[in-house]
Amino acid sequence: MEAKDHYSPGTRVRSLTLPTPEFISAERPKRNRDNRFSLESRFPPSCQCTEKTTANKAALDLSVPASNLLVKNRKNAWIQLAGHPGSFAPAGPKTIWKKRLVKENYETLAYQALCEYQQSKNIMPTFHREVEFNGEYFIEIEDLLHHFNDPSIMDIKMGTRTFLEVEVKNPVLRKDLYEKMVKVDPNAPTAEERAQEAITKLRYMQFREHESSTASLGFRIEAIRMSGEPPNTNLKKVRTKEEVSYFIETFVKGHEVVIPSLHQRLCDIRDKFESIPFFQSHEIIGSSLLIMFDSSNHAGVWMIDFAKTIPVENTLTHREPWEQGNHEDGYLTGLDNLVEIFGELSQKQQQQGEAS
C-alpha cells in the first residue's frame, strides 16, 4: 500500500490505495490512473456561502453539519451518539470527518495497518484519507449510517480497562477525584481515603469502571439512540449481565428478528479479530462496537474508534487480567460476553417462536 501527499491551498491530504468494500455502492470519490483517491474539490468541502460565511468556516464547524449543500443528499439527519462533542462532522453524503484530538496519529496508523488485512474488510468503517487543514488534523471515514434509514443505534465501549497505563502512573493524591467519587457513591471511599480526602487517578478510574459493567463483563453500554428519539447516555450504572440483557432486549423490541444476525455478526468480528496479527501487538483502549438496525430489519455491527490503539512490545491475549505493565485490555473478554448474551437472547427468541 502506497501513500502520497496531495496539496491544495491550506489543505494537505494523505491518500491511500485501499480495497473497496462490497457493500459500498456506486457514488465514490474518483480515482486517478494510479488508483488513488483524487482530491478534486472535496477538501475543504464545498458549500454555498453568503458574504458573511466562508467555505472554510463551514467546513470546520464540527458542532453542526458542514453545510446544507453537503448534507442535503444524506439519508439520515446528522447524529453523534457519543464521544467528544464537536469532534465529528459530515464530509459528504457517505463520509464523515473525525477530528484528531491528540498529537499522536494512532487512529490513522491503525486504519492504515488494518487495511492490509483482508479479514478487516467490512468489520470497521472504510478509511479514505487523512487531512491537515488550517493546522488541525482529520480523518475521513465511511459514514456507517448511510447504510440505514433512521436507524436505532447502540454504542458499546469495549474492554475491562478504558484508560491508558500512562494516564494513571502519577501517584499524586487528588482531592478533586475524591470529591467526584463521593458524589457518585458516598460509601465508596475506604477509611484511609476518608482520612486523606484524596485518591489517585488510578483508584478513581478503577472505581468508575466498577460502577458499570466494564470491570465485570469487559464492556459497557455507552449510549442508545432509538429511531426517531434523542440519544440516552445515562447508562453508567448498568452493571450486571441481567441489566445489560434487559437493555439489549428493550433496544431490539419489535425487531427481535435481528438478534440472530447480530449474534452471528459478533461471532464473525471475534473470529476476524483473533486472526489479525495487528491486534496481538496493540492495546485497544476506548474502542467501541457500533450496533445498528432500521425498520426494514437491516442490521450490522462494526468496530469503531482507534484513537487509543497503541503498539506494545509484548503479545496480548485481550483476555488476561490487567496488571500495570502488561497492557492487557480485556477487549476479547468483553466480546466473549457479548457473544454469550446475544446467543442466549437468540435462543430465547427461537424458543418463543416455536411456542407460538
Secondary structure: elements and pairs:
Elements: E1 3-8, E2 11-16, H1 55-60, H2 68-71, E3 88-90, E4 95-99, H3 106-114, E5 127-133, E6 136-142, E7 152-158, H4 175-184, H5 191-196, H6 201-211, H7 214-217, E8 219-225, H8 241-251, H9 259-275, H10 277-280, E9 282-285, E10 288-293, E11 299-304, E12 308-311, H11 331-355
Antiparallel strand pairs: 1-2, 2-5, 3-4, 4-6, 5-6, 7-8, 7-10, 9-12, 10-11
Helix pairs in contact: 4-6, 9-11
Helix content: 25-40%
- Secondary structure tally, helices: 11
Portion in strands: 15-25%
Oligomer: single chain
Structural class: alpha+beta
The secondary-structure element order is EEHHEEHEEEHHHHEHHHEEEEH
Q: Give the low-pLDDT segments.
A: 1-74
Let me know the average pLDDT: 80
How far do the termini sit from each other?
Answer: 54 Å
* Major β-sheet profile: 6 strands, antiparallel
Query: For the largest beta sheet, what order do the strands appear in spatially?
Result: 1-2-5-6-4-3
Number of strands: 12
Rg from Cα: 22 Å
Globally, the shape reads globular
Explain what you see.
By secondary structure, the chain is an alpha+beta fold. The chain has helices at residues 55-60, 68-71, 106-114, 175-184, 191-196, 201-211, 214-217, 241-251, 259-275, 277-280, 331-355, and strands at 3-8, 11-16, 88-90, 95-99, 127-133, 136-142, 152-158, 219-225, 282-285, 288-293, 299-304, 308-311. A 6-stranded antiparallel beta sheet has the order 1-2-5-6-4-3, covered by helices on one side. A 4-stranded antiparallel beta sheet has the order 8-7-10-11. Strands 9-12 form a two-stranded antiparallel sheet. Strand 1 (3-8) and strand 2 (11-16) form a beta hairpin. It is globular, with a radius of gyration of 22 Å. The protein starts with a strand and ends with a helix. The model is unreliable at 1-74 (pLDDT under 50). Its EC number is 2.7.-.-. It is an enzyme of class 2 (transferase).
